[in-house]
Amino acid sequence: MADLAVGRVVDDNGQLAMISIRLNGESREIPSQLNLRALLLHFSIDPDRVAVEMNRSIVRKPDWEKTQVTDGAEIEVVQFVGGGSTPKSTVSAVNCSNTN
């Protein structure tokens, strides 16, 4: 997979440094230095169909690339879903089960 990190940070053993976050209520370990867009791609989430909240604040799509994901961040990703016979759209949490 392509290196999605803004900058590669390694620990004293030369291993990629990891941070802990909560993504849609689940604890996850991810490479440090990811921005929000890179986080979505890391979990194979289509960035065109979601909204992102970090630490209880909505982050606008134009700000994703400059918004660093930090250790302990609480992130919610929701997907807009349309369909049915009414013009009403619904929102559902995105399945982030990718173990990367």
Structure, explained:
- The protein starts with 17 loop residues before the first strand and ends in a 7-residue tail after the last strand.
- Strands 1, 2, 3, 4, 5 and 6 form a six-stranded mixed sheet that branches.
- A hairpin with an 8-residue loop joins strand 5 and strand 6.
- The protein is elongated.
- Helix content is 7%, strand content 32%.
- It has a single domain, classed as Ubiquitin-like (UB roll) (Roll), CATH 3.10.20.30.
- The relative contact order is 0.22.
- The protein has 100 residues and is mainly beta.
Are there runs of 5+ residues with pLDDT below 50, and where?
A: 1-6
How do the helices and strands follow one another from N- to C-terminus? EEHEEEE
Backbone structural class: mainly beta
From the 3D coordinates, which CATH architecture would you assign?
A: Roll
**How would you sum up the global shape?**
elongated
Tell me about the largest β-sheet.
6 strands, mixed
**CATH fold name, please?**
Ubiquitin-like (UB roll)
Q: Give the helix level as a range of percent.
A: under 10%
**How many DSSP-defined strands?**
6
Number of domains: 1
Number of helical stretches of at least 4 residues: 1
| Distance separating the two termini | 10 Å
Content of β-strand: 25-35%
- Overall mean confidence score, pLDDT: 83
Give a short summary of the structure.
The chain has 100 residues and is mainly beta. The protein is 7% helix and 32% strand.
